[in-house]
Amino acid sequence: MEGSMVIIMEITGSINEVRKQVKEWRRQGFTVGLVPTMGYLHEGHKSLIDRAVAENDRVVVSDFVNPIQFGVNEDLATYPRDIEKDKRLCEQAGAALVFHPEAEEMYAPDFSTYVEMKKVSEGLCGRTRPGHFRGVCTVVCKLFHIVMPDRAYFGQKDAQQLAVIRRMVRDLNLDIQIVGCPIIREEDGLAKSSRNTYLNEEERKAARVLSRAVYHGESMIKEGERDADTILSQMRRIIEAEPLARIDYVEMVDADSIEPLTKAEGRVLTAMAVYIGSTRLIDNFIVEV
Ligand code: PAF
Fold this sequence. Notes:
single chain; Pantoate--beta-alanine Ligase, Chain: A,domain 2; 2 domains; 6-stranded parallel β-sheet; 3-stranded antiparallel β-sheet
């Protein structure tokens, strides 16, 4: 790994510019890491960039609110954006390039090619957000082809997304190492998310119920409970006790295939999506049993 010299960070919205820059780094023998994001960066994203900077000579952060992964009634229009703050965070973390394209740069008016995945993308969030993972796979596949990184970094908070991307990389023989990084939490346990910004004071307090359920489920498994129904019903009870919370799903699945489990065995993902008021939040834990 090379990288002790000071890196002047650039920002571009142009696919050709990214390609030119990465080609030059390759000519110099540098390794390249990619951190795909939708911007409005927080400490969770920073932990991905830090890891990428530690493991690669040059790091590209993509900062793009991908329209095709949002459903018609979802929050594309209101999704928070702050590119100036994002630039500062990327620069401080040691990224070399921020790729911040307009939607028109990524999608031609007659764009018509999508990456569609079966099974892994169909349960959990895929059930309530039809088309979401098709949008995620398509944009991530495009980013991989634009940047051609050695490694790409994703957070475990989006555990199903991570499983979907690993499967896409395997199935399409993409020569990229996928690095999953731990969930970063607020002091009170709430998983960091750009969408936390939608919560008012009362909702923000109520949102603690997600991590409380996570910690409870995790400790049940650690203490020896294996029955999925028993674990999930206790977790659901904790969430249902909060008047502002409405469960979308709380489920136990295999962490790689996202197939439902009746017993906690293997690499177990227990995941939830919960509305707090009108904001949909996700959280999860993975244990090896
Ligand atoms: O996790 C996200 O922020 C997005 O789904 C991703 C991977 C950047 C694709 O738009």
